[in-house]
Design goal:
By secondary structure, the protein is of the alpha/beta class. The protein is 18% helix and 27% strand. The chain has helices spanning 47-55, 73-76, 79-85, 116-123, and strands at residues 9-14, 29-34, 37-41, 65-67, 90-93, 102-105, 108-111, 130-132, 137-140, 143-145.
């Protein structure tokens, strides 16, 4: 964190590892204060978000913007908490974020997509505050989103 006026302030709220007194969980969430905006980037699985935010002095209810990087449970589980506690929040995400996703290991499929409670919370966001992004966009002066990043896959021959 910096004392420089105008410098962004970044606080990791959820990660796989955490300092003493904070909860760790598989997932990610970061609080960013920049350009007069309070932005939450992802929400972790959910359980650690409220506890860690409280312990770190982050007022999730004051979020101006929620950005969802992708639709996995470990990045979207706390969406209901954010939408309920910050009713004026603007949400930015790709239109495919609520799409069902699965991990297949040893022939067995396991759901890894956005939890149903998060999908329903997203559906309650008024259209003027739900921004489906498919290309680079500036969401506030000096704060931008890249839009989708192409996923390159190598084809393996057996």
């Amino acid at each position: 964190m910096s004392d420089v006026v105008g410098a962004p302030r970044i606080t990791i709220l959820v990660d796989n590892k955490a300092n003493d007194g904070l909860l760790a969980e598989h997932g990610f969430s970061v609080w960013i204060e920049a350009a007069g905006q309070r932005l939450l980037f992802d929400t972790g699985q959910g359980p650690a978000l409220a506890s860690n935010a409280d312990k770190l002095g982050v007022a999730v209810h004051s979020a101006d913007t929620l950005v969802l990087s992708h639709g996995h449970y470990d990045h979207t589980g706390g969406v209901p908490l954010v939408i309920e506690s910050a009713p004026a929040v603007h949400v930015f995400c790709h239109p495919a974020v609520p799409t069902s996703r699965y991990s297949i290991r040893n022939g067995a499929a396991r759901p890894i997509g956005m939890p149903e409670s998060a999908r329903l919370a997203l559906e309650r966001v008024p259209p003027e505050r739900l921004h489906w992004t498919t290309q680079p966009i500036e969401i506030a002066p000096g704060i931008g989103l890249t839009g989708p990043i192409p996923r390159l896959r190598a084809c393996l021959k057996s």
